[in-house]
Amino acid sequence: MEKKRIHIESLINAPLDLVWDTYNNPEDIKQWNHASDDWHCPSSQNDLRVGGKFNNKMAAKDGSFEFDFEGTYTEVTPKNSISYVLGDNRTTDMKFQDENGKTKVLIDFDAEETNPEEMQREGWQSILDNFKKHVESKA
Questions:
Q1: In a domain? residue 27
Q2: Residue 61 within a domain
Q3: Which residues pair with 39 in a beta bridge?
Q4: Which of 4, 24, 65, 133 is the most buried (most CB within 10 A)?
Q5: Domain that holds residue 116
Q6: Which residues, listed in sequence order, are joined to residue 76 by a DSSP beta bridge?
């Protein structure tokens, strides 16, 4: 069965170098990688290379729930694109595009089958929006 793909994107008012570095730096990831204010990312590990792994712990601030968002990189083209596969074999493809000093980030990912597609899109978009705010605060 073919997996449904979901697309999100954001235009970030920051240069490509800063966007790339901030997206992949574990100390920065802990600052932006959450979908709502009652969640956080207490730990992040990132080995950004083909075959390398990442693991970002996502946790409710009240301690009621946490999970590891982890995967393995299948393609890394610095300052251009990243692809990875999650533990359940869903894939994600990202593109980073210079737009006259701003950076467009495009993400396409396989939907999972537990939650509605719109909920998944909103959750991932919310995380990307938090990333945008974090990067722009550094620019």
A1: yes
A2: no
A3: 60
A4: 24
A5: 5-35+73-138
A6: 82
